[in-house]
Specification:
- This protein is α/β, with parallel strands linked by helices.
- About 30% of the residues lie in helices and about 20% in strands.
- It contains seven helices and ten strands.
């Protein structure tokens, strides 16, 4: 079953709606972004949904103390979207996701292997450390599928996530702007996205 992570939680209501939609994990942005939340908000969001659903903190080149503070606030899993080293990512004793950005070329297989202790996420290249709602050429990472389970991000939405799953069979998919209206999480879009993922799984 393809896991679904809905990222960019800003309120307890966002988290409640995402869990009700069937998300397997939720994400909060702790890097420069319109969706960035404070550590106090992280703590409130973490308390608003079941502990069995992990909360992922998204960072871009953070300091070690910033990461530790986020863990204290309630973050369960760490996602690194900058130039963090494998040693840094693994140094907190938590499960981590390392984002590798896909531009004109796919990431080097050696880079994928360097972060073998964590889960790799492929996302569209961006100067801000995220895909900014843009897709990339999915076929370009097909040769990397044999290197282990991975998460797919970047411009996913209700209309295209099924195709992405059929093509690449990712371990998980990550969505943020694709389930928003007017910059806010939309309950029905979240439900429709998870439904599209489940239907693609069932058809496989």
């Amino acid at each position: 079953m393809t896991r679904v992570k809905i990222c960019g939680m800003r309120t307890p209501q966002d988290a409640h709606d995402a869990v009700q939609a069937g998300a397997d994990a939720l994400g909060v942005i702790l890097a420069p972004s319109p969706r960035r939340v404070s550590l106090a908000e992280v703590a409130v969001i973490r308390q608003s949904f079941p502990a069995l659903v992990p909360l992922v903190g998204v960072f871009v080149d953070p300091g070690a103390q910033d990461v530790r503070a986020a863990i204290e606030a309630g973050v369960d899993v760490l996602q690194f979207s900058g130039a963090e080293s494998p040693q840094f990512c693994a140094s907190f004793g938590r499960a981590f996701v390392k984002v590798l950005h896909v531009g004109e070329r796919a990431p080097d297989p050696g880079d994928v292997r360097r972060y073998g202790a964590g889960t790799i996420m492929y996302d569209a290249s961006s100067a801000r450390g995220g895909g900014m709602g843009r897709t990339f050429a999915w076929a370009s990472i097909e040769p990397l599928r044999g290197l282990g389970p991975f998460c797919l991000a970047g411009g996913l939405c209700v209309e295209n996530v099924g195709e992405a799953i059929r093509l690449l069979r990712p371990f998980a998919v990550d969505v943020s702007s694709g389930v928003e209206r007017d910059g806010r999480k939309d309950r029905e879009l979240m439900r429709a996205f998870v439904r599209a993922v489940r239907e693609s799984d069932a058809a496989a």
